[in-house]
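Bench notes, afternoon.
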Amino acid sequence: MKKRLIVLGSTGSIGKNALDVAASLPDLFRVVGISAHRNEEELLRNAEAHGTRALALSGAAPRDPRIAYAGEEGLRRMIAETGADILVNGISGAAGFLPSVAALESGKALALANKETLVMAGDLIKSLAASRGVPILPVDSEHSAIFQMFHKFGAAAVSRVILTASGGPFRDLKQEKMSAVTPAEALRHPTWNMGRKISIDSASLANKGLEVIEAHHLFDLPPERIGVLVHPQSYVHSFIETQDGSLYAQIGKPDMRVPILNALTHPHIHSYPPGKFSLAGMSLSFLDPDPARFPMLPLAYEALRRGGSFPLVYNAVNEEAVTAFLDGRLSFPGIADLVSRVMDLRDWPPCRSVPEVLARDGEARRAARRLLSSREGGAKQ
């Protein structure tokens, strides 16, 4: 029997790859719902290609009557009203949080590429999934790798996990040159073709910081048991270290279709035509990330150790800072500086409900905007 899929963010990188997986395995999957933010034309092309009727445009009023769901509320109604077995959340940023909640509340398995969902409210999200009896299946290549190895070895055998990072476009840039980098330079990722926000996060290693926080929630690990290594070739997707000190890695092509497929077919591993891979003639290298050049990574560990809603604040302020950097209002090092300043403004206690999460997210963003508009947090600092 075919699995029914909803794909959110169908015009973005994750969404396109998820639709490609579904198209390549038509005996396994049927796409019953898709969304886009503003790209109505591509949404309609995707719908025609996959025979999908439930369509949502979350960021604009649709012109075509075939798109029955409009706005963020319409997107959540589409999720609730469309019968599906699993939902792929490929929405970028905090905008993906409420759609994840809607998916779990309606009893759908969640194939999660939106790491902000767990960063903002990991305990709440896990509790909601448990109450509905549905799994959260990681789609990020690093977490997908660890997830599979956890299932093969068992959690008790794992002493720590190590996430790999490409290092982004500035992995070899000297610290004194960081303040002069431009948005165009930061958007030139050496390995992956991604959206603007996640490309900047990769350049600052904020993306890896978010993944550290996500790994904490997915695998119930304290921060000291989650490591990061820069691996420029991007073939090793992550390691686990077992209790005897041995390291085990998942190695494969940097192809997001593979972790998407693994999430969609869990607990089974399905054959996939482009999945063959050879290490012959290949060199692999690893190095520790430099905390001085990439302070967003140690700030993520700090947020995790401080607990409460510090991870939420880390994410919210980073989103504001990235927007300011792309707009030319903030230097690249200013991203981490702004995040640090807002984290240090006051204690940020835990959130007990979804409305509290949204309110705290708004608080953090307003604090970031105030600092950005003041002389202390002003442009190009």
